[in-house]
């Protein structure tokens, strides 16, 4: 919302300077986003008198003037304006002044051999008008030496206020002025509106259909108007707040929109066909709007129609076919009230943003219609001439309910301190409410402005010992409860002296607050970082193609900002793949990324850690030789380390080959706890996926499904008693020839299972696959004796069982 | 006699020579061994006078052999070491150093600061129903914030009355927590939020943190203290000034925008001081209707809520200036702005790194 200081002063009697006004506005919740004074650019220009004017010795069209700019000196200026003459008053720019219309800064210069120390300016040069036939001529009484912007009344700062959506009244300058006055800046100047007698019945008739979205439609017709350009003062005001002057009639409607948050509309009576109806649109109804766009209305839109069909969206935008123009002689003035929800829906549906929509959708003061139709008709007659009809109203507000014209809120003055922490005597509270034109009735005082029945009802419900009844003004549709009254008083009083009240502190040191999941996530994150992975945060949405490659997304965005951000990711890997690719394109040689976030599946959102390794595992090195690539075992190492950090029972994990279609079938696996609970997938990405998504080759990756990791059983902080074995362990090696379909993990498990009491570990330490030969695996088995050392016979027995267990899998002890 | 023997020992040049000298003197048929053996055949008087001499000689020779052996071994070691030089200026195997993303780090910092004030960390879904994201927060059907240009709507699924949305703020977590946890409550809710906005300072996804206190007798004054205390702890400065301004949010009443004072240091805005104000938080007293929507009696329970951008806090504290870079995964940026694994924020060690 933009307005100028002078316009504000129409409604507010104040001498406060612009900065104090801005500070106060911000302090009461009308945040000033900027103060801009376009005239400041012209501050250097002064009212000056031409003392002498002589012909330029070298040029026919130029004159050499001497000018008095108030300094008392006669300043020599070369001037080309035909109207420059001795004795006239004009606008002088000294050297150093910037001429906006010519985009140049004045310098002392010689023009055709004659020194010129400044310039007498035209209106166009100062961007104050189009006139460039000569220099500006000022009346003889203009005070020489005065700053021109002050003399011309141009020194008028423009405020830009961010009006919050709950304050429709502050989309009018009157509302802003009222708030300022309530907060102690100046005195509010209410404007009485005088009735303009009408001479005839307005024609055409207006019918307001119930349920149309339009409640009330006041109208007047003004005959025999002349719709030329509006006067300078009006054009200047509209331009200052960013509106383009169009014609007197249109400018008048815009004036009321800004001045009083009261949008109006004008129709050219001669272009209207038959009577006017406010109704729901018929399917497929189209019209050309004033913004030169054609709209197709839906049956949910409220339209204003004549017999030709829709001629505008009521309260949003008017139609081109019935708009006023320079030939308009008879005008129909509309001052209506539309349902805010209907206005908002229509505006949103068709993407139309207008000043009218902004005001109607927030709620116009329903009591301002009759005064506005008088004031606007008055201004039309003043500026355009003509004769006004009687005002006539169509439609009506419901007797009760919405819009609420009798909004009484029970309020306990004690709530101000209880909610806002501000202690203010009741008299002051009442005074603030009064300045905002909220009427506060203390039933203990006896006096009443409520009707008897209403008061009786309230007093029965709310204890008069502690409650007031506050009637909110009709321009404040946002007020609907006690907290709103607290806010009004608090905001006008100001938040500056709010106390700073400590929250109560529990006894002792602060208690831990993190949940198991949160702790696990922290451990995963810092372990991954400690292992050399960089944490990325990538978009939660991916493209349809990316989602499809990872099993397909269950959630699609209806209004994505781009097709690349269309589907909620079913995996963290697409985001990491893209990030890795970007890094490689930037010249990175080795990329290790991880992300902790959610996968969005049909049932719910799943906490997940994704990691990706690509490029060089080790760069070329004087010790290790050529650069080495990552392989699936690198991913496995990360996964196991991370699962261990997360507290997963890693010893119980089983490896199931082939992690699914995303992965290389032979070089990927899942890690499971039991056959069903998958806690991680890892391995090489499927080469087809790599090719289709331009993923870097040689990429290995993993996902840890952190929400599948079971909680550790908590047994308190104390560890089990420390009891190292009394006797040293014995190590024996076994080498087996293994069928190709038996995994190392299966063999090791079988070996370990051969004697669970004695075998404390079994580990593959060698693997040999000769060309055209059988696979051999060598396993180191650690045996732990109990209270007696093993005898040779015992060891032989365990060995026999180990071999037997392996043989069950088809493995043979190597001879 | 002894001098000659000692000379022989001293003259040896390596351990083999020394060993043969030792054998020739102390071995089975060595010279000194022979002398010792001869003691047995001596008469007692001669033995009494010769024995000490022979024993002393043996002692002398043994010592000399030991000393010489040590000397030769040392010389041998020196010789070997002289050939064992490596160039330790060559690079050692590289240790990997990963990083923690600034958003995660700041979330950990916030959790640490607020834990001390008794706030726990709550979470909620990012794909939300319109009830939790809007309606329960006092944003009815026709509220402008529901407009398509701000909110990502999901394609409707079978059997659902209205499409879900990507949560536009972390405030739905307030509702979910109030519904299931009886007050008093103190919580923060950090997480991803989404708005269909994209330019230099807006990304369609970003991070917010929500704070909520529900209790009896909570006022705007508690809110002010909490924010001051939190900002001082988070930014690790005592000269943090805040300014509260009345504002409007549908889910709070009264509502306040909170500005933090900044100063300019080397051309960059730094939190602290009062050279200017910048808006960092939205806040207010939880709207009675919101409290009622969670099944609590607004005449009994009241409290405050606040919200701010986690990415924004990170930028203000650590000096990044481009939000989009947060979500690019550029390892150069991550190495530059990220944190080391052991930079764990603690109260004793400080919540900044």
UniProtKB/TrEMBL annotation, chain A:
Binding note for cofactor: Binds 2 magnesium ions per tetramer.
UniProt keyword Ribosomal protein present: no
Keywords: Aminoacyl-tRNA synthetase, ATP-binding, Cytoplasm, Ligase, Magnesium, Metal-binding, Nucleotide-binding, Protein biosynthesis, RNA-binding, tRNA-binding
Subcellular location, record wording: Cytoplasm
InterPro entries assigned to the protein according to its UniProt record, in alphabetical order: aa-tRNA-synth_II/BPL/LPL, B3/B4_tRNA-bd, DNA-bd_dom_put_sf, Fdx_antiC-bd, Fdx_antiC-bd_sf, NA-bd_OB-fold, Phe-tRNA-ligase_IIc_bsu, Phe-tRNA-ligase_IIc_bsu_bact
Coiled coil: none
Gene3D superfamilies linked: 3.30.56.10, Bira Bifunctional Protein, Domain 2 (3.30.930.10), Ferrodoxin-fold anticodon-binding domain (3.30.70.380), Nucleic acid-binding proteins (2.40.50.140), Phenylalanyl-trna Synthetase, Chain B, domain 3 (3.50.40.10)
Primary location recorded for the protein, binned into one broad class: cytoplasm
Ranges for domain FDX-ACB: 725-814
Domain of life: Bacteria
Stretches that traverse the bilayer: none
Presence of keyword Heme: no
Group of enzyme by EC: ligase
Catalytic activity of the protein: tRNA(Phe) + L-phenylalanine + ATP = L-phenylalanyl-tRNA(Phe) + AMP + diphosphate + H(+)
Enzyme Commission number: 6.1.1.20
Residue ranges constituting the TRNA-binding domain according to the UniProt record: 39-149
Similarity comment text for this entry: Belongs to the phenylalanyl-tRNA synthetase beta subunit family. Type 1 subfamily.
Subunit and partners: Tetramer of two alpha and two beta subunits.
Name assigned to this protein: Phenylalanine--tRNA ligase beta subunit
Gene this chain is encoded by: pheT
UniProtKB/TrEMBL annotation, chain B:
Gene Ontology molecular function terms on file: phenylalanine-tRNA ligase activity
EC number per UniProt: 6.1.1.20
Matches recorded under PROSITE patterns: AA_TRNA_LIGASE_II
CDD domains the UniProt entry points to: PheRS_alpha_core (cd00496)
Cofactors required: Mg(2+)
Protein origin, superkingdom: Bacteria
Ligand binding (Mg(2+)): 253
Predominant location category: cytoplasm
Compartments in which it is found: Cytoplasm
Cofactor: binding details: Binds 2 magnesium ions per tetramer.
UniProt domain Aminoacyl-transfer RNA synthetases class-II family profile: residue ranges: 104-345
Reaction equations catalysed: tRNA(Phe) + L-phenylalanine + ATP = L-phenylalanyl-tRNA(Phe) + AMP + diphosphate + H(+)
Keywords noted in UniProt: Aminoacyl-tRNA synthetase, ATP-binding, Cytoplasm, Ligase, Magnesium, Metal-binding, Nucleotide-binding, Protein biosynthesis
Enzyme class label: ligase
Family according to the record: Belongs to the class-II aminoacyl-tRNA synthetase family. Phe-tRNA synthetase alpha subunit type 1 subfamily.
Subunit structure: Tetramer of two alpha and two beta subunits.
Designated name of the protein: Phenylalanine--tRNA ligase alpha subunit
Species annotation: Sphingomonas hankyongi
């Amino acid at each position: 919302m933009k307005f100028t200081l002078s316009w504000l002063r129409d409604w507010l009697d104040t001498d406060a300077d612009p900065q104090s006004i801005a500070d106060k506005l911000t302090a009461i919740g009308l945040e000033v986003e900027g103060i801009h004074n376009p005239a400041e650019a012209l501050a250097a220009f002064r009212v000056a008198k031409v003392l002498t004017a002589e012909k330029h010795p070298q040029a026919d069209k130029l004159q050499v003037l001497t000018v008095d700019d108030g300094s008392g000196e006669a300043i020599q200026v070369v001037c080309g304006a035909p109207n420059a003459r001795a004795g006239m008053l004009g606008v002088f720019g000294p050297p150093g002044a910037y001429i906006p219309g010519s985009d140049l800064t004045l310098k002392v210069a010689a023009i055709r051999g004659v020194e010129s120390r400044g310039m007498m300016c035209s209106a166009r040069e100062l961007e104050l008008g189009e006139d460039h036939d000569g220099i500006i001529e000022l009346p003889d009484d203009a005070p020489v030496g005065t700053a021109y912007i002050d003399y011309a009344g141009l020194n008028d700062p423009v405020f830009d206020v961010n009006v919050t959506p709950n304050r429709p009244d502050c989309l009018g300058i009157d509302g802003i002025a009222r708030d300022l006055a309530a907060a102690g800046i100046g005195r509010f100047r209410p404007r009485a509106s005088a009735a303009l007698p009408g001479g005839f019945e307005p024609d055409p008739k207006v019918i307001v259909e119930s349920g149309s979205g339009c409640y009330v439609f006041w109208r007047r017709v003004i005959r025999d108007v002349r719709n030329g350009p509006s006067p300078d003062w009006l054009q200047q005001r509209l331009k200052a707040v960013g509106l383009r002057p169009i014609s007197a009639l249109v400018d008048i409607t815009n004036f009321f929109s800004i001045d009083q948050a009261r949008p109006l509309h004008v129709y050219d009576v001669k272009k209207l066909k038959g009577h006017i109806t406010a109704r729901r649109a018929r399917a497929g109804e189209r019209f050309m709007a004033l913004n030169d766009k054609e709209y197709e209305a839906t049956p949910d839109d409220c339209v204003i129609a004549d017999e030709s069909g829709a001629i505008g969206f009521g309260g949003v935008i008017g139609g081109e076919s019935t708009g006023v123009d320079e030939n308009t002689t008879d005008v129909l003035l509309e001052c209506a009230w539309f349902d805010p929800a209907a206005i908002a829906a229509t505006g949103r549906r068709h993407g139309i943003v207008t000043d009218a929509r902004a005001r109607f959708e927030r709620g116009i003061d329903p009591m301002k219609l009759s005064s506005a139709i008088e004031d606007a008709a008055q201004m039309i007659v003043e500026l355009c001439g003509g004769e006004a009809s009687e005002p006539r109203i169509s439609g009506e507000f419901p007797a009760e309910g919405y819009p609420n014209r009798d909004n009484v809120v029970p309020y306990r003055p004690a709530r101000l301190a209880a909610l806002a922490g501000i202690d203010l005597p009741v008299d002051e509270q009442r005074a603030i409410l009064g300045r905002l034109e909220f009427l506060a009735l203390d039933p203990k005082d006896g006096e009443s402005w409520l009707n008897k029945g209403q008061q009786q009802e309230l007093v029965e419900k709310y204890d008069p010992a502690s409650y007031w009844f506050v009637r909110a003004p009709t321009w404040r549709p946002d007020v609907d409860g006690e907290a709103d009254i607290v806010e009004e008083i608090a905001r006008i009083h100001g938040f500056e002296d709010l106390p700073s009240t400590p929250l109560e502190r529990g006894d002792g040191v602060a208690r831990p607050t993190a949940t198991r999941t949160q702790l696990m996530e922290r451990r995963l994150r810092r372990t991954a970082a400690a292992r050399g992975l960089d944490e990325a945060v990538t978009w939660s949405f991916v493209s349809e193609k990316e989602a499809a490659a990872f099993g397909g997304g269950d959630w699609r965005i209806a209004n994505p900002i781009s097709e690349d951000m269309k589907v909620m990711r079913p995996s963290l890997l697409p985001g990491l793949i893209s990030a890795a690719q970007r890094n490689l394109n930037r010249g990175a040689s080795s990329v290790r990324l991880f992300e902790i976030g959610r996968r969005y599946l049909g049932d719910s959102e799943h906490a997940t850690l994704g990691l990706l390794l690509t490029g060089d595992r080790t760069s070329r090195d004087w010790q290790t030789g050529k650069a080495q690539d990552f392989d699936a075992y690198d991913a496995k190492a990360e996964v196991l380390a991370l699962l261990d950090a997360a507290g997963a029972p890693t010893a119980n994990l089983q490896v199931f080959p082939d992690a699914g279609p995303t992965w290389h079938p032979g070089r990927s696996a899942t890690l499971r706890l039991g056959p069903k609970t998958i806690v991680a997938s890892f391995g090489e990405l499927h080469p087809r996926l790599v090719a289709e998504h331009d993923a870097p080759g040689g990429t290995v990756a993993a996902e840890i499904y952190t929400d599948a990791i079971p909680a550790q059983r908590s047994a308190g902080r104390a560890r089990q008693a420390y009891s190292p074995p009394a006797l040293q362990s014995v190590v024996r090696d076994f080498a087996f020839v293994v069928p190709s379909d038996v995994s190392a993990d299966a063999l090791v498990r079988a070996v370990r299972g051969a004697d669970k009491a004695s075998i404390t570990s079994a580990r593959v330490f060698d693997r040999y696959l000769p060309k055209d030969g059988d696979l051999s695996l060598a396993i180191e088995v650690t045996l732990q004796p109990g209270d007696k050392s093993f005898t040779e016979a015992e060891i032989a027995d365990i060995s026999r069982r180990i071999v037997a267990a392996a043989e069950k899998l088809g493995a043979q002890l190597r001879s | 006699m002894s001098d000659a023997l000692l000379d022989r020992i001293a003259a040896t040049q390596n351990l083999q020579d020394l060993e043969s000298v030792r054998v020739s003197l102390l071995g089975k048929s060595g010279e000194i061994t022979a002398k010792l053996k001869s003691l047995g055949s001596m008469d007692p008087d001669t033995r009494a006078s010769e024995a000490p001499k022979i024993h002393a000689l043996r002692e002398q020779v043994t010592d000399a052999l030991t000393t010489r052996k040590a000397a030769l071994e040392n010389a041998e070691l020196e010789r070997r070491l002289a050939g064992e030089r490596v160039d330790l200026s060559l690079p050692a195997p590289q240790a990997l150093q990963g990083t923690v993303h600034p958003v995660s780090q700041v979330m950990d910092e916030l959790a640490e600061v607020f834990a001390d004030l008794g706030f726990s960390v709550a979470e909620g879904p990012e794909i939300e129903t319109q009830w939790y994201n809007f309606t329960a927060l006092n944003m009815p059907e026709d509220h402008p914030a529901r407009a398509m240009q701000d909110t990502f709507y999901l394609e409707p699924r079978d059997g659902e009355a209205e499409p879900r949305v990507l949560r536009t703020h972390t405030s739905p977590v307030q509702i979910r927590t109030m519904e299931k946890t009886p007050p008093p409550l103190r919580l923060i809710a950090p997480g991803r939020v989404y708005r269909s906005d994209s330019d230099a300072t807006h990304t369609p996804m970003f991070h917010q943190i929500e704070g909520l206190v529900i209790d009896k007798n909570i006022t705007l004054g508690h809110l002010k203290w909490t924010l001051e205390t939190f900002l001082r702890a988070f930014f690790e400065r005592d000269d943090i000034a805040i300014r509260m301004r009345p504002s409007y949010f549908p889910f709070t009443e009264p509502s306040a925008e909170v500005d933090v004072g900044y100063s300019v240091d080397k051309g960059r805005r730094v939190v602290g001081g009062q050279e200017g104000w910048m808006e960092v938080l939205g806040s207010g007293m939880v709207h009675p209707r919101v409290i009622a929507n969670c099944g609590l009696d607004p005449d009994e329970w009241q409290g405050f809520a606040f919200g701010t951008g986690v990415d924004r806090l990170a930028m203000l504290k650590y000096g990044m200036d481009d939000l989009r870079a947060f979500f690019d995964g550029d390892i150069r940026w991550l190495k530059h702005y990220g944190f080391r694994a052991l930079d764990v924020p603690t109260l004793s060690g400080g919540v900044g790194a």
